[in-house]
Amino acid sequence: MDDIELARHLAAGAAGILLDLRAAGTHEGKALGAEGDARANGWLMAEVAAHRPDDGVLSEETQDTPERLAKSRVWIIDPLDGTREYGEGRSDWAVHVGLAVDGVATLGAVALPGLGLVLDSGAPQPLPQMAAIPRLLVSRTRPAHEAVEVAKVLGGELVPMGSAGAKAMAVVRGEAEIYLHSGGQYEWDNCAPVAVAAAAGLHVSRIDGAPLVYNNRDTYLPDLLICRREWASQVLGAVAAIEA
């Protein structure tokens, strides 16, 4: 299978494992999240090794090693994005499978198992019509200061949601116009969502407009902007004014 088919296969397979585990009822809450992370990650790592043995891998749930830094192609994986939401029985969690080539999020698949969906960069659908008032996605528990302030500047509406992948895909699906995050993430939190969003025609960058670069020694990514291109310049301008 080609890379995009493999990404879909990986995301859908991990989604099935996670849904089956939750349905079994053998674990609850944090224990369910921990077990789901472990099972999905074990399967994903085995599948990548079987299908792309020469590629590098970076997964949230596997001890990182420097070998990937010498690789041009690196699969960047989050087996369960939104562990809390998964453990609480919610639908706003995701599985991320991205492929970075020379530091660029080149392709990806994001499963939204609670909604029965897998979105990928291979066959993006046309973006839905935008709302008249911009909707900004924020954390359910810790809305980013910059997002709150940008919403005030734009006259926008804050929409709380769970995982990073769920929020990013909500923009792709037309449920919001802007996802601005400044509270810190890691490469596995957004590589696949960025690839899917970019393929759909959305703006993707750091919140200062700089490009997102992957497969770094330090996997921390401080901030992220995914939004409709029609709003990009206004959002970036508002952030710059807030931070000035």
Topology, element by element:
Blueprint: H1 3-24, H2 29-51, E1 56-59, E2 73-81, H3 83-87, E3 94-101, E4 104-112, E5 117-120, E6 135-139, H4 145-154, E7 157-161, H5 164-172, E8 178-181, E9 185-186, H6 187-199, E10 203-205, E11 220-221, E12 224-227, H7 229-243
Parallel strand pairs: 1-2, 6-7, 6-8
Antiparallel strand pairs: 2-3, 3-4, 4-5, 8-12, 9-11, 10-12
Helix pairs in contact: 1-2, 4-7, 5-6
Polypeptide structure, described:
- The chain folds into 2 domains: 3-120, Fructose-1,6-Bisphosphatase, subunit A, domain 1 (Fructose-1,6-Bisphosphatase, Chain A, domain 1, 2-Layer Sandwich), CATH 3.30.540; 135-243, 3-Layer(aba) Sandwich (D-Maltodextrin-Binding Protein, domain 2), CATH 3.40.190.
- The model has no long low-confidence stretch (mean pLDDT 95).
- Helix 1 runs antiparallel to helix 2 (29-51) and helix 5 (164-172) packs parallel to helix 6.
- It is of the alpha/beta class and 244 residues long.
- The chain contains 7 helices and 12 strands.
- Strand 3 (94-101) and strand 4 (104-112) form a beta hairpin.
- The longest helix has 23 residues, at 29-51.
Defining traits:
alpha/beta; 12 strands; 7 helices; D-Maltodextrin-Binding Protein, domain 2; globular; 244 residues; Fructose-1,6-Bisphosphatase, Chain A, domain 1; five-stranded mixed sheet; single chain
Structural class: alpha/beta
At CATH level 2, the architecture of the largest domain is 2-Layer Sandwich
Number of H- or I-type helical stretches:
7
Report the CATH superfamily of the largest domain: Fructose-1,6-Bisphosphatase, subunit A, domain 1
Radius of gyration: 17 Å
- Element pattern in H and E: HHEEHEEEEHEHEEHEEEH
**Global geometry:** globular
Question: According to CATH, what is the topology of the largest domain?
Answer: Fructose-1,6-Bisphosphatase, Chain A, domain 1
Question: Can you list the strand order of the major beta sheet?
Answer: 1-2-3-4-5
Cofactor: Mg(2+)
GO molecular function: 3'(2'),5'-bisphosphate nucleotidase activity; metal ion binding
Organism: Novosphingobium fuchskuhlense
Binding site for Mg(2+): 60, 78, 80-81, 189
